[in-house]
Write a structure and sequence with these properties.
By secondary structure, this protein is mostly helical. Helices cover 64% and strands 0% of the residues. InterPro entries: Arc_rbn_hlx_hlx, Non-func_TypeII_TA_Antitoxin, Ribbon_hlx_hlx.
Length: 90
């Protein structure tokens, strides 16, 4: 495990100490948890952005599904005749 020094604003430090105390954990543990969650969230956002760009490119190429097909599919959810997700014709 490596060591990193961080300068914290006084208010952030107070909140950090309160959280660590309440959890009976060290400030380092709380910071590690917070950064791990932040990194995971950032990676998910990056993946969603990548998927969005891919979807926009796909739509620009005409690879789309008619709204009525999507509505029909959604309306079938939870019924005995649940449909498979519609696919673009291209």
């Amino acid at each position: 495990m490596s060591v990193t020094t961080v300068r914290l604003q006084a208010e952030v430090e107070q909140h950090l100490e309160a959280i660590a105390s309440r959890l009976h954990r060290s400030k380092g543990w709380v910071i590690n948890q917070a950064l791990s969650e932040y990194i995971e969230k950032h990676q998910l956002e990056q993946e969603r952005w990548k998927q969005t760009l891919e979807a926009m490119e796909s739509a620009a190429q005409g690879k789309v599904v008619d709204a009525s097909e999507v509505h029909s599919w959604l309306n079938s959810w939870g019924t005995e005749n649940e449909q498979d997700a519609p696919r673009s014709g291209k």
